[in-house]
Predict the 3D structure of the following.
Amino acid sequence: MSLLYAWRHRLATSLLRSRYERELEEEMRFHLSLDAMQAEREGATEREAHDVARRRFGNVTYFKEETRRMAGLEWLDTIRQDLRYAVRAFIHAPGFTLAAILTLALGIGATTAVFSVIDGVLLRGLAYRDPERLVTVLESRADGGQRLLSYPTFQDWQRQTTEWGGVVEGLAFIRGTEAILIGERGPERLVGGYVSTGFFSLMGTPAYIGRTFAPDEERRGANRVVVLSYDLWRQRFGGDPALIGKTIPLGGAPTTVLGVMPRGFGYPTWANLWQPLAVIEGTDSALIKRGVHADSRAVARLRVAADTARAAAALRTVATRLAREYPDEQANWTGVSLSPLRAELLGTIRPTLVMLGGAVLLVLLLACANVANLTLARGSAREREVYVRAALGAGRGRLVRQMLTESLALAMVGGTLGVLLAVALVRLVRQMAPTQLPRVSEIAVDGRVLLFAIMASALAALLAGAVPAIRATRPAMIDRLRSSALGSVGTVRDKRLRGVLVSAQFALALILLIGAGLLVQSFRKLQAVSLGFEPSGRVAIAIFPPDKYGEPSAAAALYQRLMTSVRAVPGVRDAAVVNHIPIGGGWVTSSVQVAGRVEDATRDRQVLYRTASAEYQRVMGMRLVRGRWFTGEDMRSPTGFVINETMAKQIWPNGDAVGQTITLRRSSQARADFGQPISGAVLGVVGDVRQFGRENATQPEVYVPYTLEVWPWITLVIRADDASRVIPRLRRAVLDVDPAIPVGGDQLQGGFSTLDRQISTSVAQRRFATSLLGAFAIGALLLAAVGMYGVIAYGVTQRTREVGVRMALGATERSIMRLVVGEGVRLAIAGGALGVVGAFATTRLIRALLFDTVPTDPLTFVVTPVVLGAVALLASWLPARRASKLDPSLAIRGD
């Protein structure tokens, strides 16, 4: 609104001035006519009458100037004059102009691009009403463990609203499960969020088009309805508004599309669509089991002025009561953890973007320092021009304004190019952004970003032009010019200031280089961590059987046929099945008990629960440590389990795990026997597998024969000679078994993915941060090198006569090069020292982004300054070599 008021004020002011100018002109013309008539009455000729009028009011130019002055518009003429003079000055110095504009374009463009990412991801408000009052709810226990709410627990919490203490406005529950969409492209698996009554009212976001659920549509037995996400509506249905009110075949039943949520509404983040929880409340057995704590979310809205501590304390009374009522499922889970919804949606990206924001500000400062140095050097060449203008009556304020106008013009041109660069960079980021980067669709160069670019350009103009303008117009310089006392390189203070700016550039560049070096070192160590399996040449296919395979025996038979079918594909070496693959394939846990031991009642030992086939260890290339893996006989008559090294060391630190008997709990939430105990002997121990990525510690893990507990869905893992080329044939092999199996999209959506791609995606955020900071560091290094070269080359040009005299007196080429290079080395050493100190102070801020690397890594702090020193030597050597090749006689005579 403030922008609208400002625009209206400017328009009104312009109209008033135009009106006043017209009235003033008409009044002065009227007086001219009166004076002419008076002169004619006094006997003067017509020519004499006009002369009288002109003498009184001046010529036409004076009349116009007086009119504009009285209208308050004379500043426009001054600005126009300053801009015309600036353009002429730029034309006469094309090298300086091009270097300054490109430098500013790089700094402003990079800054604007990063700001657009930070603005889209961090700064923009979430698409919910009062999002700061929305929190996610987890159960917690004394040892710090946390878990999702089960639906029966949520219902108990919702019924006991009197215990909320007046600090919680409402709760909502979201259950995640699949929704099969039957369309022209065949069956397509979507992930739906099935929401409790009042979910959309709690979130406070109206539909983009259409509407959300009415109360009678959220009851059991109501007609099936759905609300789509914006992305699904655009990608799957082409953004057709006519879809509202129509039915689509969803989950085997016609479902009416009520509305589409706006872009940015993405809670939970995995939801493609939302349906009332009543749709699956009678068919999803997990909703009636208090022990199911997966594939769901619980969100609460706090009342105004209520904080999370008060709300957690209020909800803790409910949790404590439930722990007494249901000791088997709720014992020890007496705490409540509340965290802002923003934290869940943004994940761990905030430190990365804050680091990139700081890095790009350093690049902008470095660019401004570079342009300031160029302006200072150019100012020495314009000293006589400044003196002449001062001698003709221009005051110091007028001269400073002229130079600042030039800086502003450079910054505006550089800013325009920078915005174009930012648009290209943002488009590249949106295309190549890692999947972990949230709210990618909201990253854009819009009005907010353009306003930031204008502000950045103005700041760049001030930083780059203020000091050179003030120094170039100081009174001492005028006096020195009057006496024609031009030094060889201007004043000592000018030379010292240029040196300080060069050292500052090297300091900033070194800080960025050390930060990038730490991230590279961290990334290198991360990549060196063993995964525990061989991802190359492996393809994963998520299989979600249709409802006719609901019985475990039918599903097991289907999985066997699928393995047989894909093994027959040319280029496939072997195939296996597992419920969850490593790196992004999900997880589920089970409690474990060891025969003959009495476990601490307060300790809940949980292990990762995997169901796998006899071929899985061979297909994945996992290392067998002791004992054996499953055989075909184990699949037909399962009697035992395989565990990993971590589990073996934790439970049997001083003994052999093979042959020991353990008891697990069936962990498939969709099966009727969920939670039932199964016992067996430990058949073998395999090497640890990094199930959640290289940077996460390994967890205790147990492998169960897939025929002992047939998972409702499964993942086919195929080892092939050429994973990417074999995928189309694998698709046909799956559909040949049953064309109703949804195979489309990525691996998590029921499609295909190579394990190499899964692993690459798992480190995409680190690669993203490392690549961007590395690019900024290289740009900073180039700017610092250009700044060093420019200052040294300018100094050599100004000291041409001195160099000639030295050579005439016997100085050798080596001594001249040592003289010139020495100046550059001194500046680089000073900047390097400042940069190392600055890096020690700032690299601690990126500690959370480092893996197995300390912020003061000695190798990085030694190698990086050496690299920067080599660049400084090169930047100094080039002008030094040119100086050493001067002809002494020509150098002395040329001055």
Q: What stands out?
A: Residues 2-72 form one domain. The chain has four domains: 2-72, 142-333, 350-527+764-894, 545-741. The chain is about 55% helix and 15% strand. The first strand starts at residue 134 and ends at 140.
